[in-house]
């Protein structure tokens, strides 16, 4: 059973699914759904459409280059059936998929750590701007009443300092 890739979004196309578009020059394009087919006919670039894998890799949202992707490339050379070879291949595929999963998780954690630092800074700025929504109105009134008294104390202290300078 061969699982193909969609030409537009790079998702898996299982046998019996999808749309095949054949151009006049005998070039065949396989699409997973009509959405991809319509975007192709509108001549959209998959690298500029935000929901495609090409965009996600180009924008750094997914792991772009990894040695495990080499195993996924299609090879058109037929191999003679060997039971041991199939057994080793299945074991290797399981091992490689585990390695790929760990690397993708690590990539995601690094991305989220950077995003979290920026988010914390944005949250602090928003909190400073809108602190009046969080503080109780009674404490704000108390601060307003205390403010003139504090200013009087500051002014008196400044006058004393000025008098000391003149002497």
What can be said about this structure in brief?
By secondary structure, this protein is mainly alpha-helical.
Write structural notes for this entry.
This protein is mostly helical. The model has no long low-confidence stretch (mean pLDDT 82). Strands 1-2 form a two-stranded antiparallel sheet. A two-stranded antiparallel ribbon has the order 3-4. The N and C termini lie far apart (100 Å). The chain folds into 2 domains: 1-65, Roll (Ribosomal Protein L24e, Chain: T); 82-141. It is built from 5 helices and 4 strands. The chain has helices at 34-41, 53-58, 69-72, 83-129, 137-166; strands at 4-5, 12-13, 19-22, 28-31.
Topology:
Layout: E1 4-5, E2 12-13, E3 19-22, E4 28-31, H1 34-41, H2 53-58, H3 69-72, H4 83-129, H5 137-166
Antiparallel strand pairs: 1-2, 3-4
Number of strands: 4
CATH architecture of the largest domain: Roll
Task: Based on Cα principal axes, name the global outline.
Answer: elongated
Oligomer: single chain
CATH class of the largest domain: Mainly Beta
Structural class: mainly alpha
Could you estimate the helical fraction of the residues in percent?
55-70%
Q: What is the average of the pLDDT values?
A: 82
Spatial extent as radius of gyration: 32 Å
Strand order in the largest sheet: 1-2
Estimate the strand proportion. 5-15%
How many DSSP helices? Answer: 5
GO cellular component, one term: nucleolus
InterPro entries: L24e/L24_sf, Ribosomal_eL24, Ribosomal_eL24-rel_N, Ribosomal_eL24_CS, TRASH_dom
Domain TRASH: 6-44
Family: Belongs to the eukaryotic ribosomal protein eL24 family.
